[in-house]
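Mods, move this if it's the wrong board.
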Amino acid sequence: MSRINQIQIRYVPVEDRIVLRLNTEDSSEFRFWITRRYAKILSTSLMKLLRSSEDIQEYKEEEVLKAVMSFQHDEALAKADFAKTFQTQPKNLPLGNTPVLLSKLTVKQTADGNPMLCMYPEQGQGIDLALQRQLLHSISKLFADALDASEWGVDFRLAETNYTVQETEKPVLLN
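Not the wrong board. Structure tokens:
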């Protein structure tokens, strides 16, 4: 896969799912569905990655850790371009036109020490994303915005005041 050019993560109400779309520099687009269950797993994994950055490991006090993480988050987002419209006319859809339903998630390390998010469906091809700091923070911001729009009760806040991942409501069983 070519380098990532753009990322879009947004809630689709009619599907009650989050769609993750990745455009690459060679104009390929990869599309994935994120369910509520998968969102909970992904939010926990992203928060662990944000908290495990080597340069914040030295901070043991929670308040200092939160402040440093907030600073890093703001610094990374300042370098990102969230205003540019997502390109919707890809030349190539390697996984097809329909988003792939994600069900498996693992985190690995690349040879250079960066985390790699490996997201796959039950069967078939998925995607491995090497996450440098800026990309990790950008994905986290987009994902947090999509979670807010979903109203699923998955709290994934990246503000200095709250770095916890928690479920805010108990699940309700229907029928």
